[in-house]
C-alpha cells in the first residue's frame, strides 16, 4: 500500500493509547502454552507478529508459516520441539535468509530432532517434536537474544532443565532480562554463575498478566515530539519500572529535547522549551537495537551529527537496516556512513523533501522511523505503508487522529 503523507500540524497535543508490547505478548503466549492450568492474558499486542504466533500456538498446524515474524520463528523453533508430531516451520522469503543455525544447534544438543529443508542454517525447518530432554548446551550469545530467550522459555518444562553456557557477550541483554523477569513472575526461577545460566525443571504458575503498552512504539512519538515545534502528549499505562529495555528511550530523548513526566496512569512527553541541541550525540544501541532507526532519523531531523554503535544485529533484522538507513537518509539530504565495528555515523545536513519514495524494505520500523521527518520536510511518500501492521497496526490512524498527517 503506497502512502503519501503531509505534515499538516507542527504543534501536537492529545492522548495516544498504544498497543500492548509485542515483546511481552510473545513471551507471555509461549508461557501460556506451557502452563498446566488456564492462564489469562490482558492487553495482548494487536501486532501481526503476535496474532500469527497466537494462532499457530492454538491450532498447531502441520505447516506453520510465520511470514516475516522473526520472534515467532525463533520461539516456535524451540516450542514445537516439545509437541509430539511432525511440523514444518517456514516463513517469508526474507525469513528464509535470516540465520537460525545457532539456535538449531543448541536445540539438537538438548535432544531435538530438526532438519533443514532447503539451506543449512536457515528456515524452513522440519521439526519432529517430543524428543527434546534438556540439560547442558552452549551458545554464542552475541548474535540474537531471541535465540537465548527461545531456549529459556521452554527450559522449565524440560525433563532435565537447562544449563546454558554463553560464549562471548550477550546481545540485546535487556530482552533476555525481560524474558527471565517474566518467567520469574510466573514462578520459574533461574541462577547465574559467571557465563552459565541454569534453569531447573519446574512448573509455571498461572498468574493473570497484563501486558504493558509498547515502549518501542512510544519511541516514534518521542521522535515526533523532538521534531515538532511544540508537543504535549499523554501515553497511558507506560511505567517507569518497565520490563522493556526500550523504555531507555525516555532517558536518551532527554538529550534530544523531549522530557518525560511519569504519572500513576502513564507518561506525558513534552517538547522542551528553549532546547539547545548538543554539538554531537553518541549512542550505543547494542542493548536496544530496535531504537536505532528512530535515533538515526531524529538526529537527521534535528541536524545533529551523531554516531550510533552496537548495530551488529541490524544486519539480520527484517532487512539489512544499516544499509537501508544509509540509502533512505540520502534521499532526504543526509549523509550516513558505515564504519568498522557496526557503527553508523550521521552527518549534519540540510534536510529536503525527497524526490523519490521512501523504501520500507518490508520493514515496519523503516516506515515508522522515517514518518516523523514529515514535520521537517512537509511531504513523504512510502512504497508500502502496510508494513506497520507487523508491530503497530494503528500507527497511521494515530497520526491522523492527532492531526500530524
Question: Can you offer a commentary on this structure?
Answer:
The protein is of the alpha/beta class and 405 residues long. It folds into 2 domains: 208 residues, Alpha-beta prism (UDP-n-acetylglucosamine1-carboxyvinyl-transferase, Chain); 189 residues, UDP-n-acetylglucosamine1-carboxyvinyl-transferase, Chain. Strand 8, helix 5 and strand 9 form a beta-alpha-beta unit. The mean pLDDT is 95.
What average pLDDT do the residues reach? 95
Q: What is the name of the CATH architecture of the largest domain?
A: Alpha-beta prism
Percentage beta strand: 15-25%
Q: In what order do the strands lie side by side in the largest sheet?
A: 2-13-15-14
According to DSSP, the number of beta strands is 20
Number of domains: 2
What is the CATH fold-level name of the largest domain?
Answer: UDP-n-acetylglucosamine1-carboxyvinyl-transferase, Chain
CATH superfamily of the largest domain: Enolpyruvate transferase domain
Count of alpha and pi helical runs:
13
Low-confidence stretches: none
Radius of gyration: 21 Å
Cα-to-Cα separation, first versus last residue: 17 Å
Residue share in helix: 25-40%
CATH top level label of the largest domain: Alpha Beta
Q: Helix- and strand-based class? A: alpha/beta
The biggest sheet amounts to: 4 strands, mixed
User: Judging from the principal axes of the Cα atoms, what is the shape?
Assistant: globular
Amino acid at each position: 500500500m503506497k502512502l503519501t503523507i503531509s505534515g499538516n500540524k507542527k504543534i501536537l497535543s492529545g492522548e495516544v493509547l498504544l498497543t500492548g508490547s509485542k515483546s511481552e505478548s510473545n513471551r507471555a503466549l509461549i508461557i501460556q502454552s506451557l502452563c498446566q492450568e488456564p492462564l489469562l492474558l490482558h492487553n495482548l499486542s494487536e501486532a501481526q507478529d503476535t496474532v500469527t504466533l497466537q494462532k499457530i500456538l492454538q491450532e498447531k498446524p502441520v505447516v506453520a508459516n510465520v511470514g516475516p515474524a522473526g520472534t515467532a520463528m525463533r520461539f516456535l523453533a524451540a516450542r514445537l520441539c516439545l509437541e509430539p508430531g511432525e511440523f514444518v516451520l517456514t516463513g517469508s522469503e526474507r525469513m528464509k535468509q535470516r540465520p537460525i543455525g545457532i539456535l538449531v544447534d543448541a536445540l539438537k544438543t538438548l535432544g531435538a530432532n530438526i532438519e533443514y529443508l532447503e539451506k543449512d542454517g536457515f528456515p524452513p525447518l522440519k521439526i519432529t517434536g517430543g524428543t527434546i530432554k534438556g540439560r547442558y548446551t552452549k551458545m554464542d550469545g552475541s548474535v540474537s537474544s531471541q535465540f537465548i530467550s527461545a531456549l529459556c522459555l521452554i527450559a522449565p518444562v524440560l525433563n532435565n532443565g537447562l544449563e546454558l553456557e554463553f560464549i562471548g557477550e550477550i546481545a540485546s541483554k535487556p530482552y533476555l532480562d525481560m524474558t527471565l523477569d517474566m518467567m520469574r513472575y510466573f514462578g520459574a526461577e533461574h541462577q547465574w554463575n559467571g557465563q552459565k545460566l541454569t534453569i531447573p525443571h519446574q512448573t509455571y504458575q498461572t498468574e493473570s498478566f497484563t501486558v504493558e503498552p509498547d515502549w518501542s512504539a512510544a519511541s516514534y512519538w518521542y521522535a515526533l515530539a523532538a521534531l515538532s515545534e511544540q508537543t504535549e502528549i499523554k501515553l497511558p499505562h507506560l511505567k517507569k519500572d518497565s520490563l522493556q529495555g526500550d523504555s531507555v528511550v525516555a532517558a536518551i530523548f532527554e538529550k534530544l529535547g523531549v522530557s518525560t513526566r511519569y504519572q500513576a496512569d502513564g507518561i506525558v512527553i513534552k517538547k522542551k522549551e528553549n532546547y539547545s541541541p548538543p554539538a554531537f550525540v553518541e549512542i550505543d544501541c547494542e542493548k536496544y537495537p530496535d531504537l536505532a532507526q528512530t535515533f538515526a532519523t531524529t538526529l537527521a531531523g534535528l541536524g545533529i551529527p551523531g554516531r550510533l554503535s552496537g548495530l551488529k544485529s541490524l544486519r539480520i533484522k527484517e532487512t539489512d537496516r544499516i544499509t537501508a538507513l544509509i540509502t533512505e537518509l540520502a534521499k532526504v539530504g543526509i549523509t550516513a556512513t558505515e564504519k568498522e565495528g557496526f557503527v553508523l555515523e550521521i552527518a549534519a545536513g540540510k534536510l529536503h523533501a525527497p524526490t523519490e519514495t521512501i523504501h520500507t524494505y518490508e520493514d515496519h520500523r523503516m516506515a515508522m522511523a522515517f514518518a516523523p521527518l514529515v514535520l521537517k520536510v512537509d511531504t513523504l511518500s512510502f512504497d508500502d505503508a502496510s508494513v506497520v501492521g507487523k508491530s503497530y497496526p494503528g500507527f497511521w490512524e494515530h497520526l491522523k487522529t492527532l492531526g500530524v498527517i
